Amino acid sequence: MQTVSTSREPYTFPQLLLKHAAERPDAPAMREKEYGIWHAHSWAGMAQLVERMACGLHQAGLMRQEHVVVIGANRPRLYATMLAAQSLGAIPIPLYQDAVGAECVFPITNADVRFALVEDQEQVDKLLEIRDSCQSLSHIFFDDPRGLRNYAEPGLSSLDQLIATGETFAASQPGWFSAEVAKANADDVAAMFFTSGTTGNPKGVVHTHNTLLDRARAGAEFDKLTAHEEVLAYMPLAWIGQNIFSYAQWLACGYVVNCPESASTVTIDLKEIGPTYYFAPPRVFEGLLTNVMIRMEDAGRLKRSMFDFFMQVAKRIGPDRMDGKPVGLAQGLLYGLGTLLVYGPLRNTLGFSRVRVAYTAGEAIGPDLFTFYRSIGVNLKQLYGSTETAVFVCLQPDNDARADTVGVPISGVQIKVADNGEILVKSAGLLKEYYKNPAATAEVLTPDGWYHTSDAGFIDASGHLKIIDRVKDVGRIRGGVHDGAMFAPKYVENKLKFFPYIKEVVAYGDGREKVCAFINIDFDAVGNWAERRNLAYAGYTDLAQKPEVYQLIQDCVEKVNADLSLDSLLAGSQISRFLILHKELDADDGELTRTNKVRRGFIADKYLPLVDALYGGKSEQFIETVVKFEDGRSGSVSATLKISDAKTFAPVKAAA
Asked: Which domains does the chain have, with CATH numbers?
């Protein structure tokens, strides 16, 4: 098998593209699914496309060190626009395609963006809507022309026209493009990523070619990636996790990146491609598992019994087997039978039949969820990193993946723990700066090169990093029977989110005498559960307040409480009271970031009457909330929410 060249030569991204195109011009670089058919783009074809786009952008007036906004789903031509901009020494800024127009104003104005390269009519309309607020924005190029025939806005043009202009220029000056690519060096700025902005305006994280490629290569070396890997690119390019896996490592390793037809076909496309290298945040793995559980609840009694039996076998044997530990002949044969009857078909249903390495990151994953995938033979591992560290800081070795750690520091990384428990990182992958924000840069980067992660954790005896929570979120219970006990909200939330009926949780307790929580039910999973019990409901709000649903969720809460009682450190984090919210938390309503992280403080302020009701001993509370619909309209949702008490358990003392 062809292994990856992990040469530390100081390449830029366009230089790597030309290297692959020269060494294996006909090998597939990307695939794109359109109208149900996969179309391949060779390395030579991608290089030619990038050359024409770069020449077209040069003709349109794009200058070195200018910023270019890229908005859209994963599409080969949008990947090519980023490479084209970098070929000219310009700096691409991928933005979230599901962000509303107002969220794009700050990045565009902050970076003085003149050029935007977008996917389709939806993104064009968004930019035209905010154009008056973005005075510098003068050129908008779109990929998909559907719906845009009668648009006559100044500066609006198609990528096809841009490519045609570039083709003419490239033909007249055949050596110009390669000369421009050669001008760049690895320490030039390569891209800028705007943080989620959980508080205040987002910050532009500036990365060079070297910082991104150094971490991409380090990750490739760690997992022995080859040029034969298959990757499915379906998460937003604006999220650095997807960008590293399907852009930086794509060019560092030369493997194939596959772009699904749409968000609705990802599950089908996943099974068709059968990726060997897979990456997704915990929310995706939770959703896949929820779909499996829904299907099993609809299955016949015999099939459910077989599934339950072999899942118990998998839970007992699977993790040890995955870690290369001996399991005994009888247990091995039993697991083999389970693979034939359950685990193999299940991996195929999930699209994981060929996965060699699967990673999750972005936020902590629940230990039960993590163990589930490894128990059925999916090599799911956790990694630790952030936008500012170019992702790869810690990775888990194949034979030493643990539910309660995020791995070991990889090549080129140093870690130390501050007196307050904060993790500090030093590596070649650290951000250059926050754009136009020296004060924020100075807050996170020390003069001697250490980055403040804002995460609390420690290195255990085996050298693995354990993350407890964000430093600012780790608190203490004050008063009551657990006075002084540690409170780690994210740990509690993730344990609850393992249950297929629970989609999101926001736990509160710092400085209070007990822990209370807001819960979002998973509408599909609970709806399916309700229908099988002939429980009628009229939408999310109605279903969420059914007494039967409250009992279902209470059972989940109390199971988690019982489990927490076994942990002497976190026994005080048991949930005493909870309510089920009348609406799903939504990024459009400001409750989640675009990477689906809970904005805890914002939610507490927005739903202060509910917080007060939980801690005030009330049994119900009326709430009315303004919401934004997908078409941009606003409305309101109101309900009287029930508040339930949950059973808590005395901490279990360890045996002497």
From this structure: 13-211+240-252 (3.40.50.12780), 280-470 (3.40.50.12780), 475-645 (3.30.300.30)
